[in-house]
Write a structure and sequence with these properties.
Blueprint: H1 2-25, E1 35-41, E2 45-48, E3 65-67, E4 71-78, E5 85-87, E6 94-97, E7 101-105, E8 112-115, E9 121-122, E10 128-130, E11 133-134, E12 136-138, E13 153-154, E14 168-169, E15 176-184, E16 198-199, E17 203-210, H2 212-217, E18 219-226, E19 232-239, E20 243-251, E21 257-264, E22 270-273, E23 279-280, E24 282-286, E25 291-294, E26 297-301, E27 307-317, E28 327-330, E29 333-334, E30 342-349, E31 355-371, E32 377-389, E33 394-397, E34 399-404, E35 410-411, E36 413-416, E37 429-432, E38 435-442, E39 457-469, E40 474-479, E41 485-492, E42 497-502, E43 507-516, E44 525-528, E45 531-533, E46 545-546, E47 554-557, E48 559-561, H3 567-602
Parallel strand pairs: 15-39, 17-27
Antiparallel strand pairs: 1-4, 2-3, 5-48, 6-47, 7-8, 7-43, 9-10, 10-11, 12-13, 12-43, 14-41, 15-40, 16-29, 17-28, 18-19, 20-21, 20-24, 21-22, 22-23, 24-25, 26-27, 30-31, 31-32, 32-34, 33-38, 34-35, 36-37, 38-39, 41-42, 42-43, 43-46, 44-45
Length: 603
């Protein structure tokens, strides 16, 4: 029987050496899990049974006499503890800091394999792969939302499930910009009041050609006027009920006769034009002997109740003019000669990703004492800002006033020119804000056609971070618009989110890795290429979870998990197995010698 026992020892130790050899062979395999062999003795042959002590015979108990029949391999156990994590610097390398497993798609739909190896790569079609298998996780829907409660599927970093491309990020139209920095408090004040940096409207000028059609159907022109505080109002100039009378007139002080066309409107406005259509002024006497003084100006009352001069000196009468050839324009408004104290440029993008530069200028206006609603006095300094375009293709418009207190901090809210709590007081109010709109529209040519294909849009400019000190500068600190961009790289976060990095410095979530956990990970079946499959003793795969939950552990990007093979332990086990193998071999040799002796005795 010793020969058979020795043979079982040789087989068992050979298996142990096989396992050790496999461990040593995979010492550099990414995330390899070492194995160990456990032995158990075989059924023993009973030569005599045990007996209990006897009082009748006054004898003691006797143990059974058993001879073992050898050894057998009882288990080959996988050590699922994590190996050390080593940095590689490769963007697509990922290591798990816990007990989770990456999920890869099997050969048929709905089947999966599992691996700890995170040496991922991206194939020509954009599939995230490991050792030729597609890595699984969740991909965003059309709105960019990831549903981590859904079943996982193969991740593609180039295309969405609906076929749209992830390699290009769509442009985003600018909707806001944030301004920050410091305005110069030592600049000269340029305004007439805390809420105005220009001049009031004095005159409306009517110019162009007056046609017979205009006289018959009226002239209506609407203009924007400014008061002394910079408040705007609408003034509508209407000349209606017009008639034309042509006759011979003699200018006072002259004996020469001239032909004049006298246009009279229902409001009493009377204008006279000579034979060339030019406006004439002065005292003239008609052929009937009636003296009339013709003027080149009139007056107009605005909606705010003020009276504005109307200048007609640039108006001519033409028999060939078309309707609406005469126009009106009001003077006044923001001072075009003001000095710019500070300026900044905002790069804005339309919906197609076209970039335009919008300039924002700042000019110190005035300093005055105002009162809040409780009657508390406050000294503020106002700054006028105005937006303008730096491109021939767009019009950028927007303006307003910022207010700063004596400490240079931005002031917002409503204030009054005098104490509003005084009985009977009706002070003028001023409202200041920190956010204003800049309106962007396409420029048009002489025919009214857009010079660029964009729809009007508005950029909200937040200036809450602007202050006023002695020195400094102002600039745009953030904005949300950008042009389209192409995918240039990837990054993996600790929860498995894969973010694409684009050429326009923008990022976008491409997918998220899902991890699997098992009740008995050591029970997984090894199926080659560092993959595992569910077995009857591993526990089932019930669905993926997010990295960092359910004990899976977080992820480390740019790193890989090393093999957990302990070389020193393997060499020690190898020496023990070698000695055990030699001893079993020696037993066979000794048994052979004994048998040879018996044979020699018989012969």
């Amino acid at each position: 029987m010793s020969v058979y026992a020795a043979l079982t020892a040789l087989n068992a130790q050979q298996t142990k050496l096989d396992v050790i050899g496999n461990n040593l062979a995979n010492v550099s395999t990414v995330a390899y899990k070492s194995q160990s062999v456990s032995f158990s003795d075989l059924l023993s042959q009973t030569l005599s049974s045990s007996s209990a002590a006897s009082t009748s015979s006054n004898t003691g108990g006797v143990n059974a006499q058993q001879v073992g029949l050898g050894v057998a391999v009882s288990a080959v156990t996988t050590d699922v503890t994590s190996g050390s994590i080593s940095s590689t610097g490769v963007d697509t390398d990922v290591a798990i800091n816990g007990s989770g497993y990456f999920i890869v798609a099997g050969e048929t739909d709905g089947t999966y394999y599992f691996t700890r190896a995170g040496n991922f790569s991206v194939d020509a079609s954009g599939n995230l792969t490991v050792n030729g298998y597609k890595v699984c996780g969740w991909e965003p829907d059309a709105s960019g939302t990831l549903d981590t409660e859904d079943a996982v599927s193969a991740i593609n970093l180039f295309s969405n499930a609906d076929g749209t491309s992830k390699q290009v990020i769509a442009p985003q139209q600018t909707s806001y910009a944030t301004m920050g920095g410091t305005l110069d408090s030592t600049a000269d004040s340029q305004g007439d009041s805390i809420f105005y940096i220009g001049s009031a409207t004095d005159t409306i000028t009517v110019s162009g050609k007056l046609s017979a059609s205009d006289i018959a159907t009226d002239i209506t022109q609407t203009v924007t006027t400014y008061d002394a505080e910079g408040n705007t109002s609408t003034a509508t100039l209407t000349l209606s009920g017009g008639t034309v009378t042509t006759g011979t007139y003699t200018k006072s002080g002259s004996s020469d006769s001239v032909t004049l066309s006298v246009v009279t409107w229902s409001d009493g406005t009377t204008l006279a034009f000579d034979a060339d259509g030019n406006l004439v002024t002065g005292e003239y006497t008609s052929s009937a002997g009636t003296a009339t003084t013709f003027a080149s100006s009139g007056t107009l009352s605005t909606a705010s109740g003020t009276s504005i001069d109307v200048d007609y000196s640039d108006l001519t009468l033409s028999s060939t003019a078309t309707a609406n050839s005469a126009t009106a324009a009001a003077d006044g408004g923001i001072d075009s000669d003001m000095d710019t104290d500070s300026s900044a440029t905002i790069s804005v993008y339309d919906a197609l990703g076209n970039e335009y530069d919008v300039s924002v200028s700042f000019a110190k206006c005035s300093t005055a004492t105002v009162y809040d609603e409780s009657g508390t006095a406050k000294t503020i300094t106002t700054v006028y800002w105005a937006a303008g375009d730096s491109s021939d293709n767009i019009n950028a418009s927007g303006s307003g006033y910022l207010a700063f207190d004596a400490n240079g901090k931005l002031v917002t809210g409503t204030y009054y020119s005098s104490d509003p709590t005084v009985t009977g007081a009706d002070p003028e109010s001023y409202t200041f804000d920190s956010t204003y709109d800049i309106n962007i529209s396409a420029n048009t040519d002489s025919s009214g056609n857009k010079t660029t294909n964009i729809d009007d849009f508005t950029v909200s400019m937040n200036m809450a971070a602007v202050s006023m000190y002695t020195t400094g500068s102002i600039a745009v600190s953030a904005s949300d618009g950008y042009a389209s961009g192409t995918l240039t790289g990837y990054s993996f976060s600790s929860d498995g989110t894969i973010t694409g990095v684009y050429s326009n410095n923008q990022t976008q979530v491409l997918a998220q890795l899902g991890l699997a956990t098992f009740d008995n990970a050591a029970g997984l079946d090894k199926v080659g290429t560092s993959l595992y499959a569910v077995s009857a003793n591993s526990g089932s795969f019930s669905g993926a979870v997010v990295a960092g939950t359910d004990g899976t552990g977080t992820l480390t990007s740019g790193a890989l998990e090393s093999s957990n093979v302990d070389l020193s332990a393997q060499f020690a086990e190898m020496m023990v197995a070698e000695r055990a193998y030699q001893a079993a071999s020696k037993l066979i040799t000794v048994t052979d010698d004994m048998m040879q002796t018996v044979i020699n005795m018989v012969s």
